[in-house]
Amino acid sequence: MQLFQRTLNRTVTCTGIGLHSGKRVNLSLRPADPDTGLVFKRSDLPGAPLIPGDVHHVVDTRFSTTVGQAGVTISTVEHLLSALAGLGVDNALVEVDAPEVPIMDGSSAPFVFLIKSAGLTAQARPRQFYRVKRKVEISEDGKQVSVAPADELSIDFTIEFDHPAIRRQSLGFDWSERDYAREISRARTFGFLSDMRRLHEQNLGLGGSLDNAVVVDKYRVLNDDGLRFPDEFVRHKVLDFLGDLALVGRPILGRFEAYKSGHDLNNKLFKKLLADPQAWQLVTPSLEQATGLEQAASLEQAATGLAPQAAQSAVA
Ligand SMILES: [Zn+2]
User: Fold this and answer.
1) Ligand 1 centre and the CA of 225: distance in Å?
2) Tens digit of pLDDT for each residue in 68-106?
3) Is 299 inside any structural domain?
4) Which is nearest to 126 in space by CA: 2, 10, 308, 29?
5) Active site residues
6) What are phi and psi of 128, to 5 degrees?
7) Domain of residue 78, residue span
8) Gap from CA of 311 to ligand 1 centroid (Å)
9) CA within 13 Å, CB half, 202
10) How far is the CA of 213 from the centre of ligand 1 (A)?
11) Same-domain pairing of 139 and 277
């Protein structure tokens, strides 16, 4: 378990195109101080306004995840956030000169490469985790997502599409930095040809192409090189989920189960979890780390005759 907060060693930059506009976007990832979190900056606007990358600043989840504040927005943040969370980056400043993060190849692998080229540095401030204390769930239109107590982060995801190239796919992922890079980050976003045509007609998704998405028609995958994994679709859903999870603002110790969930329902679950102070507690694993979380909790309980103290006042 990673006990100290981390940031980038140095600033790294890349250029890609925006999914919405189809235009060139420059992206910089910069180191940030402890307890900053993941913060976005629009360098193309006067005063270069900042937008916190947290669940309270999500303003749209229909087409991609958009964060915003005081009328300033940045779209398509989810794959970059996934890479940052997937590699255990707590603090970073994300600067773009457009209203969206570049789509790159539709996965988070280019961002993983970028973050790894910067290198990561541990900061002299411990990480605080949300430790889930009781199960919280939410369901809507046959979709479902829940979180239950666990000592580590894991995600069980199932999707079901009435489509010959997808059908039912399930994946259990126990988070580790290495497995994120290997098993999850290369999975690309996917879309249906009919939806893409409709978006193009509305002047949306102009940058979307076979270069940055798996595209399926009624019967098959249209990309010449096929899929990167036989179950690339569900792997991408786990990638997206980790990006949404990054918006919670602190790492979570819990076991998530999702069935056909998406950005909107994921965010509703996180809000429901945070709004219920009985459902979580903030922990700074140190003693806990030495003896195992559960054991430490019961030791503390035995020593004091009290339930472990939760430090819940500092957060929303
Ligand atoms: Zn995605």
Assistant:
1) 20
2) 999 999 999 999 999 999 999 999 999 999 999 999 999
3) no
4) 2
5) 263
6) -105, 135
7) 4-126
8) 34
9) 9
10) 9
11) yes
